[in-house]
Amino acid sequence: MTTLNPALGSSSPAQTRPSAHAWHRATEEPAWLRRTLIGIALTFLTIFLVLPLTVVLYSAFEQGLRVWYEAIVEPDAAAAIRLTLLVVLVVVPVNLVFGVVAAWAIAKFEFRGKSLLITLIDLPFAISPVVVGLIFVILLGSQGWLGPWLASNEMRIIFAVPGIMLVIAFGTLPFVARELIPLMQQQGKEEEESSLTLGANGWQTFWRVTLPNIKWGLIYGVILCNARAMGEFGAVAVVSGRIRGETNTMPLHIEVLYNEYMFTAAFAVSSLLAALALVTIAVKSFVEWREERARTAQQN
Amino acid sequence: MAIALRQPSVIPGFGITLGFTIFYLGLLIVIPIAGLLLYTLQMSWDDFWRAVSDRQVVASYKLSFGASLIAALINLVFGAIVAWVLVRYRFTGKRIVDALVDLPFAMPTAVAGIALVTLYASTGWVGQYLNVYGIRIAYTQIGVIVALTYIGLPFVVRTVQPVLEDLDKEAEEASAIMGANRFTTIRRVILPALLPALLTGFALAFARALGEYGSVIFISGNLPFRTEITPLLIVAKAEQFDYAGAAAIAAFLLLLLINGLQWWASRRYR
Hints:
The complex is a heterodimer.
Chain A: H1 13-16, H2 18-27, H3 31-61, H4 65-73, H5 75-108, H6 114-126, H7 129-140, H8 147-152, H9 161-172, H10 174-187, H11 190-197, H12 202-231, H13 234-240, H14 250-259, H15 263-299
Chain B: H1 2-5, H2 14-42, H3 45-52, H4 55-88, H5 94-100, H6 103-106, H7 109-120, H8 127-132, H9 141-166, H10 169-177, H11 182-211, H12 214-220, H13 230-239, H14 243-269
Helix pairs in contact in B: 2-14, 3-14, 4-9, 4-11, 7-9, 7-12, 9-11, 9-12, 10-11, 11-14, 13-14
């Protein structure tokens, strides 16, 4: 009773303390509940995040570094890695330029139809990867609309590298733009306006004022775009035709190896992509940590 | 013309950046999607209906919708707990745990797929213990739910987290002062404030699960009528050059997804 109603207790200062205890009890959860919730959260994340990651790395190196290395340099695997790198070397820079240009138009200007434009940029997030693949097969495949014309001009897009690039460009289009638009909107346009009033031209303003401000968001957007481009599976499965050594990207090669019961080799190639995923989330936390630090520095 | 559409500004480059944005979006996104819809409109109603109402396809809708719904519900409950724990409590390794939540976004789906089937197969690290109790996950519908839970995991956490961080502690304190116990405060003050974010995360996880392919096809085993998801049938039909059948199912899925997105957007801006 005294803990709940200290005013009725004796006049000693120690007796007034329990009110803090009652206060905590009303605004915080009891310790046992806190521990239970942390336990539930950590168990859930261990089952769904830590175990799958661990099984990839464990299975990749189970038979030693040598077997891992041989699985990576085996000709078909090496061809898949080379193709994947070639694809991201084309797709990521194009989507990087698009992301910066779109974010500039959307964040620095007010115009009608802006929200429609943002919805269109988000659209690839809402479409199933296999539907993305199907769209391009129907448009450009040998039995598709432009198929006969492409064939007569001896151009091959579907079941060839250009088709893979197209579907990956489609699927990863939003990443850089989505990272930059909120960042640039939040930063406003005062700095650019002062730079321009002081006599700098548009390019100088972009390179010296805007770019340094968005640098880290841009880096994270590019790394995420790159990770998703290298890992894209459903859309590529539809358009690639799975020609070994020619149109198999790393994820498709992993599927082939797995279906041929070459589990160690499948996990060896997977371990490269898993490492890339880990680098991606590490960069993300670093960028967020920097933003947080910049925010607290501003407040002080 | 562009000038009339926008407010005046000293910043240059409006015409060229907007022009390029519209050009690239039009070429890569709008024209191809319009192409798919036109392609489906070309089909006769009978062909369309036969493709989307095939018994095997209908069985796949049931699985895709049911499993996506259950997975999104699992993520709703556990995602809320994870977000709560990450925002309100302190424990060692919290930063790493927080970063790991994004893993399903960054991990290629094929890698997740073979990892999950290896874990839950009857000889796997987890599967062998469940096997003792007669519980099978790999190659069953439960396996589909497990994979869809994995890929939808970040959505609820990442939509609820910022809302919870910005939540005014004063409302909770006021509730406590007025005599509410902690449980009542959570139920009557905190939960209503989190509800829009919870629903958004749920809808996003559901929509993502509905279209997912790579992480599911390994663990599901793809048994006709039992563990075939709709995206798998689209791929199967495309591989048999039955583009019309694939397009009909895809258009069906696309319309449902866009409806879902509209529902989500209208909730968000209401």
